[in-house]
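ok so I'm stuck.
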Amino acid sequence: MRRLLPFMLLALAFLGCKRNDMQTMQTATSTDSITDSVAADSDSVSQPEPPAAADGVFDDFMFNWMNNKHFQLERTAFPLPVVSKQGTSILSASEWKHEPLFSKREVYTMIFDNEKSMKNISDTAVKCVVVEMIKLREKSSISYMFTKQRGAWRLSAIKHEELSENKNSDFLDFYQKFASSEKFQKQHVARSFELSVIDPDSYEHIKGTADANQWTLYAPVFPTDVMTNVNYGQEYGDTGERVLVVSSVDGMMSSTITFKKRGSQWLAVKLENN
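replied:
not stuck anymore, here's the structure
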C-alpha cells in the first residue's frame, strides 16, 4: 500500500455519505476516476454476469458482493482509499483479499435511531450505505462505504476508527455489557415490556406485554465479540432511542429490540420476534 490523500479529505467523504449529499461526496473522493479504474484492474479476470437483482435494493447487492469473489472484485473501486488514524492509503486490486464481512457469521445486527428509519432497508433511492464491522472487545470498528453510481453499487472506501469516534459509542458501550452479562441484561429490561411473537399455528403476530422476568424466554442470543451495523442513512442523533435488529444470516430468525434511555440508563422496552 502507498500513501495517497490527507486523512481529512476522505473523512469528509464518510461524513457526506448521505442521500442529500451525494454530489459533494463524489467530488471530495474523486469517485468517478476511481470507478473508471475498476475496468482496467478487472480486465485480466474473467467476470461472470452480475445477478439481475444486484443493483436494486442494497441487501440484494450485499449478498452477492459478500459471497461471489469475482463479483466482489468487479464491484470494488480500485485503487481503494483506506482511512486510519495513521492517515490514508490506497489498496490495489492485486492486494485485495476476499472480504466475507458477516456472511460467515451466524447472525448479523443493525442499529436504527427509530422504527421509522427502518424503511430505508427497502428504499431503492438510497445511494450510499455504510457497513460497519464492530469489534466490541477491541473497541474499534471498520466501516465499508458503498456508493451507487451509474446504477451500480461499488465499495468505494474503507475506514478504521476507535469506537469512541462512533456516533453510537454510548449505546455500543451499553450493548457490550448487555450482551455479555445476564445479570446486567435483566437489570436493563423494563419491568413491563411490549412483546410480539409468532403464533406457531396461525403464523400471525401475537402482541401483548410481558414481565421483565420473562425476558430470557423470548430474547435472542446477542453477539458479544463482533457485531455489525448497516447504515442506510440513519442520523443517530441524541434521540434517546435505538432499535436493534438481530437476524440470522440464513433468514430463518429475526428479532427487533427497542431500547429507550431513561435518565442515564438504557432499557429494553419492546421485543418483536419474527
